[in-house]
Design a protein that fits this description.
The complex is a heterodimer. By secondary structure, chain A is α+β, with helices and mostly antiparallel strands. The radius of gyration of chain A is 24 Å and the shape is globular. By secondary structure, chain B is of the alpha+beta class. The chains are: A alpha+beta, B alpha+beta.
């Protein structure tokens, strides 16, 4: 097996000739006085992307970002500084800045370094090298030719291929030293169709922690193009969405963004330590219908939201957040876990070395129930069947959340009817989850496109769910329900 | 800080080196952006400092052209060897991109060789300790005003000095320093089991123009407690007022729809609307890129083109699009100096303040918060989650939440009845509150 830690040290420390002794010295400087915990986070990220627009490979970019973040924690206080030079002087300067948060005090013992091993959920590879530049460009062109040949009403096509090769090394004052190599690729298709003066768009994409070869197997890239076209054509037929409270059936997979917004954020440790989430102080209480079991699982192989270890070196876990409707646990990083007297759940994440670690989700989804999806739709007299969404947002304190449907249909007398235009769905997390009255047996995870934003930091995440029936959710259309 | 960050000569030399290296590698044209910033943010919680973050960011973006093929690269490292390899990477990528007839730098005559020196940099001589004191004081004041304030989530001071440089192989090199300082206070109010979170902030290029801690504390408290007791309202059609800070977004969608990228991709509901009436006749939207001290000001755009006082809407009619060089060529037009967006969009307003505007509306919805991203620029379809207040007889009756407002942007723009005089100057779009005749509200 590849020694990921050795790879990380080679990539991050070797170019500047940094060694374990020097890192010990920095940690010693940092952790010397009244500090509960301190860490160094070395990171290098190589990103590339190619974009095709209407037959032309229009953009190609290559980005390198390298640096080190230094954090010192004392009680509730955190000092943080970073440098984009991985060199000893810059590191010491950042360490002195970070520890200035704390007044002078007694010396603390620093733990001897020991290696902490994470999972092996993905290969420690550089996906940028998994395909030649010519082949990358050719993939985009082939997919465009394929989809244009299918439908003359396409007036605009944008296809992009992006890859990222990220290496991190975490050194903690608790002695933990851990490394990870994180490949991430993504393929997107968006297009616009026009018919009799009406223009509508469709979008699809996917990816994960693997190399580009995965996108060439099984025609997956062509399926994304098909899916984008299908959505655009459905939207051409869409009528105005209804307005008001109604029963909503959510399709499997990406609609799990509902759980991410309505439940997930409210269960992050920082909000609950401060007691400002709609779910604060409710462990052990019923917060959802009996049918709901929701997990945050960072240990799924090759998924976009998965990590061998979080950004504090803690191996990720399969955390049961809500079990048969009962709130079981919050998602924790080391800092909030210590302040709340629990263990980290492996949810400490950061966008980059230049950002502070906070509790974040990985892959968040609901487990299967017993109902067949057809049975769920057949159970609704009048309602909305929403199968695709743009994105969402939540106010964790009041619990209210929104998410925007990009593909939805009316349900009438138990049957799927006309497609309707995009509409925002709004509800309150704890209320909405109590109103889940049927859960399908068709759990699906999304295709690997999720980006979650919090405190100005973006991280890749996954979502999923089986088909769900929610009684009574407000649908923000323009048409008065007749 | 001034010694290293604002060392204009040093970064001018780096940009010349980049352009020269690109030429040496065979590029027919090249351009680069160097952006640097340095500052810190402190946040207070429970009467003490919670976090201190020192920020120091550098980025260099390089774009090279080989005829009509382009390649870009970016790095955060300004050592000569890193820069050299980034130029090579950009040149390498350009081998694989296609011939794009619209590609290329701005023409020489479009470049802002004589650009104005705007005052946008007002460094704040504030120590971290002082910043902590101010944040703690603001929190303390907020917590003392009203018993219904349960806690302060965080009170933050953020201060940043930055430097921006753009250079290209058509001989343009321009740079300017700018600053940004901000104080914000996020509060949690509680009444029974209900909790509401709200905030207030003040932001400026010049710290002397920031509101006082007392003002920020007072506004944050008022905004938080006034939303306690929020309920749903029933589904109906009703007039709405977008509070000035949220009205900004409404006009942001307009700017997105007239921006070159949306237009040449045929992805705008305002495609082919030049010289057509979009808004009522009293509406006038103008860009003023050279305002002193304004956060949105800029002497030249992201392509070195001179910024200017563009009039986008005159008497309700769309007079011009917002274009950069590439989109302009695609559309057979000329750049309007809007590569990177508009700079200080000024919306002509009426003379009624918010209280008078509420009276004019009589009965309807006042929107104070918008959630979600349900806006489709291609079709104009609009559906957002909102919170606010229910208004009767021109007065606030009770707070509302968990409702949506929906419509089509085309109809919403045409349906604007008045713009209030309560202009919010904190953002790049300066507008008062906006009254719209009728929208669909979905609730219970």
């Amino acid at each position: 097996m590849t020694d990921v830690l050795a790879l990380a040290k080679q990539d991050l420390l070797a170019p500047s000739g940094l060694n374990d002794n020097q890192l010990q010295n920095v940690i010693h400087t940092l952790a010397g006085r009244n500090i509960d915990y301190a860490d160094l986070y070395f990171q290098s990220t190589y990103t590339e992307s190619f974009g095709l627009e209407n037959g032309i490979i229009k953009s190609g970019s290559f980005d390198i970002d390298r640096g080190v973040g230094v954090r010192a924690i004392s009680g509730e206080k955190t000092g943080f500084a970073y440098a984009d030079d991985i060199e000893m002087p810059a590191l010491m300067q950042a360490a002195n800045a970070a520890r200035s948060i704390v007044k002078q005090g007694d010396e603390q013992p620093v733990q001897a370094f020991h290696k902490r091993v994470g999972h092996a959920l993905y290969q420690p590879i550089n996906p940028l090298h998994s395909l030649s530049e010519n082949d990358k460009v050719e993939l985009l062109q082939t997919v465009e030719k394929y989809i244009r040949a299918k439908e003359p009403r396409i007036v605009q096509v944008n296809i992009s291929l992006a890859g990222e090769y990220e290496t991190i090394l975490v050194v903690g004052s608790d002695g933990h030293v851990a490394g990870d190599v994180r490949p991430l690729v993504r393929f997107n298709v968006s297009l616009v169709v026009e018919h009799q003066g009406r223009r509508e768009s469709g979008y699809a994409g996917g990816g994960g922690r693997f190399d580009y070869q995965q996108l060439l197997t099984g025609d997956v890239a062509f399926h994304y193009a098909d899916e984008a076209l299908r959505q655009a054509l459905v939207n051409l037929e869409a009528i105005d969405a209804p307005a008001g409270s109604m029963t909503v059936v959510l399709g499997p997979g990406w609609p799990g963004v509902l759980l991410h917004e309505a439940v997930g954020h409210g269960l992050e440790g920082d909000f609950n330590r401060k007691g400002i989430s709609a779910y604060s102080n409710r462990l052990g209480q019923k917060v959802a219908s009996d049918l709901c079991t929701i997990v945050d699982n960072g240990t799924l192989a090759n998924r976009r939201g998965s990590l061998n270890m979080d950004d504090e070196g803690t191996p990720t876990q399969n955390n049961v957040l809500i079990e048969n409707g009962i709130l079981r646990q919050y998602m924790m990083d080391k800092r909030n876990a210590r302040l709340m007297g629990v263990e980290s759940t492996g949810n400490g994440r950061r966008e980059s070395y230049a950002h502070l670690t906070i509790p974040r989700m990985t892959n968040t989804y609901m487990l299967n129930g017993k109902s067949a999806p057809e049975e769920i739709i057949a159970s609704v007299d009048k309602g909305l069947y929403a199968v695709n969404f743009g994105g969402g947002q939540v106010d964790i304190t009041s619990g209210k959340f929104v998410f925007s449907a990009s593909e939805a249909y009316l349900i009438e007398n138990g049957k799927i009817g006309a497609p309707v235009k995009g509409a925002t769905l709004i509800g309150n997390g704890p209320d909405a989850l109590m109103k889940v009255s049927m859960v399908g047996n068709d759990l699906k995870l999304d295709t690997g496109v999720g980006i979650c934003g919090k405190d100005g930091q973006s991280v890749p995440v996954g979502v999923g769910q089986p088909t769900l029936r929610v009684d009574d959710l407000t649908v923000g259309g323009t048409r008065s329900a007749s | 800080m001034k010694n290293n960050l604002m060392n204009t000569n040093h970064f001018e030399k780096i940009s010349s080196d980049i352009l020269r290296e690109a030429e040496r590698l065979g590029a027919s044209q090249a351009e680069c952006v160097i952006a640097l910033s340095k500052g810190f943010s402190v946040s207070a919680h429970d009467g003490d400092v919670e976090t201190v973050e020192y920020n120091q960011d550098k980025s260099i973006e390089i774009n090279v052209l080989f005829g009509k093929r382009s390649g870009t690269a970016s790095i955060s490292d300004i050592r000569p060897e890193a820069i050299k390899s980034a130029v090579e990477a950009a040149c390498h990528i350009a081998k694989f991109t296609g011939e794009d007839t619209a590609a290329g730098l701005a023409e020489k005559e479009e470049l802002a060789f004589q650009y104005p020196h705007l005052n946008m940099a007002y460094p704040w001589s504030l120590s971290v300790q002082d910043a902590i004191q101010i944040a703690c004081q603001c929190e303390r004041e907020a917590l003392a005003i009203d018993k219904r304030i349960m806690s302060a989530e965080e009170t933050t001071i953020n201060t940043m000095e930055a430097f921006y440089l753009y250079a290209n192989s058509n001989g343009f090199m321009g740079s300017y320093p700018h600053t940004r300082h901000e104080l914000s206070c996020v509060l949690i109010g509680k009444k029974g089991d209900e909790m509401q979170r709200n905030f207030s902030y003040t932001v400026a290029t010049d710290p002397s123009q920031l509101q006082s801690t007392s003002q920020v504390a007072k506004d944050a408290v008022e905004r938080t407690v006034s939303h306690l007791g929020a309920r749903k309202i029933k589904t109906m059609k009703t007039p709405v007022i977008y509070l000035a800070e949220e009205a900004r977004g409404l006009l942001g969608h307009f700017i997105a729809a007239i921006s070159g990228g949306s237009l040449y991709r045929q992805s705008s509901f305002l495609l082919n609307h030049l010289d057509k009436k979009i808004f009522p006749s009293f509406m006038h939207l103008q860009e003023q890129p050279h305002l002193e001290r304004a956060l949105g000001s800029s002497p030249f755009d992201d392509e070195g083109v001179a910024t200017r006082n563009n009039i986008f809407i005159e008497d309700g009619i769309l007079r011009q699009y917002s274009l950069g060089v590439y989109a302009a060529r695609k559309l057979g037009m000329k750049t309007t100096g809007n590569a990177g967006g508009v700079h200080n969009l000024i919306v002509k307003h009426g003379n009624k303040n918010l209280t008078e505007l509420l009276k004019t509306m009589g009965t309807g919805l006042l929107i104070t918060e918008i959630m979600g991203n349900g806006v489709n620029i291609i079709t104009g379809d609009y559906s957002r989650g909102v919170s606010g207040f229910w208004i009767e007889n021109g007065e606030i009756q009770y707070p509302v939440q968990e409702i949506t407002v929906a419509g089509k942007l085309q109809d919403m723009y045409a349906g604007i009845q008045e713009i209030g005089s309560d202009v919010d100057v904190r953002g790049n779009i300066r507008t008062g509150s906006i009254l719209i005749g009728e929208m669909m509200v979905a609730g219970s």
